[in-house]
Specification:
Elements: H1 7-10, H2 25-63, H3 66-80, H4 82-89, H5 91-100, H6 102-111, H7 113-117, H8 119-135, H9 144-173, H10 184-187, H11 194-223, H12 227-256, H13 260-269, H14 271-296, H15 300-335
Helix pairs in contact: 2-3, 2-4, 2-5, 2-9, 2-11, 2-15, 3-8, 3-12, 5-6, 6-9, 8-9, 9-11, 11-12, 12-14, 13-14, 14-15
Length: 345
């Protein structure tokens, strides 16, 4: 029975609700992976796009270069449309995870309850700040200090919000740590995978934003010569290449921080899980090589191939994320089974 023998008498996981899961479990598992992919694409663009806009504006101020300022203005305008899309596409994964992982998700949410409830007012402040940041660009052109305050406030909150979700997810995967985990701030350094997950998320966010900037710059250049679009294109492909290479370091750090049983499954203990991880790593290395090539020479064909490969890698990583969740929770689900809808005669 191994490390989880104590579950039979001391499991911290509550019994599942008497209500059956209202549908086919494998179908919900597919929907949660697909829904998460769609959601995280826009979250990546929103978070890293906002950070990049503030960075470019500061760089423009320091270098006294209007090109950087115009790049920041365009990027802030473009990513502002992703706020609502990211929120709407996040509803389905959140509802499904609370439905099929009820006895794990609700206790982990309660453990960080105060900060979890603070998410709504924090997002309202962040969105309003970024709207002010976007719409006052010209009005406050000669008052950059005030303008940057709103950009930094909104961006800072957006950098913080993912930690709420990551902490909740990390907590639900390790119920054996619930008894010594109290509150959000303590949990940040209590669960071993939180900061590695955050690094992995941020790396993907900047890669996605870099690809987006390169694509948008290319579209603008089709109509006329535009130095701002050209600069955005150059900045975007370099951003994507650098953070994809950093992802190759963040991934192993995350794997090494996982529970020994889960880590073993992905390092030879399970042919299926090891195969998934090896495939994802090989494709990520190929993606890095393609992005490095793109920084040296522009090619529409190479770029389109890079986008396709990026989406494949993102999908694989999301699938692996689900498998990690299942491996972590398998012993607990065995001891406290979920209420599955019975087939009707």
């Amino acid at each position: 029975m191994g490390n989880h023998a104590w579950l039979r008498t001391e499991s911290p996981v509550p019994n599942d609700l008497g209500l059956a899961i209202p549908g086919n479990l494998p179908m919900f598992e597919v929907i949660i992976v697909v829904g998460f992919i769609l959601h995280i694409l826009f979250v990546n663009l929103l978070v890293a796009g906002s950070v990049s806009a503030v960075y470019l504006e500061i760089k423009g101020i320091v270098k006294k270069d209007r090109i950087y300022d115009s790049m920041a203005n365009r990027l802030a305008t473009q990513v502002s449309t992703f706020k609502s899309i990211a929120v709407v596409l996040g509803i389905a994964p959140l509802l499904i995870i609370s439905t099929i992982y009820t006895q794990f998700f609700y206790p982990s949410t309660i453990l960080i309850g105060h900060m979890w409830l603070m998410m709504i007012p924090l997002l309202i402040i962040a969105f309003l700040s970024l709207y002010v940041y976007k719409f006052t660009w010209e009005v406050w052109r000669n008052r950059k200090g005030i303008h940057l305050i709103f950009g930094l406030l909104g961006t800072g909150i957006l950098l913080f919000i993912p930690l709420l979700f990551i902490t909740n997810v990390a907590s639900m995967l390790q119920p054996e740590l619930w008894d010594v985990s109290r509150g959000f701030w303590g949990s940040l350094f209590h669960y071993p995978t939180i900061w590695q997950r955050y690094m992995h998320f941020m790396g993907a966010s900047f890669t996605m934003t870099g690809i987006f900037m390169y694509w948008r710059g290319g579209r603008a250049l089709r109509h006329a010569h535009d130095p701002v679009a050209e600069a955005s294109r150059l900045f975007g492909k370099r951003l994507a290449a650098v953070f994809t290479l950093l992802q190759l370091a963040a991934g192993p750090l995350l794997l090494l921080s996982m529970d020994a049983r889960v880590k073993n499954a992905f390092t030879g203990g399970s042919i299926f899980h090891t195969g998934l991880l090896v495939l994802a790593i090989l494709l990520a290395i190929a993606l890095s090589c393609m992005l490095v090539r793109l920084t040296k020479a522009d090619s529409r064909r190479l770029f389109m191939s890079t986008v396709v490969l990026f989406l494949i890698v993102l999908s694989l990583m999301s699938w692996i994320r689900h498998e990690v969740r299942e491996l972590y929770l398998a012993p607990y689900v065995k001891e406290s089974p979920r209420t599955i809808e019975k087939s009707r005669p």
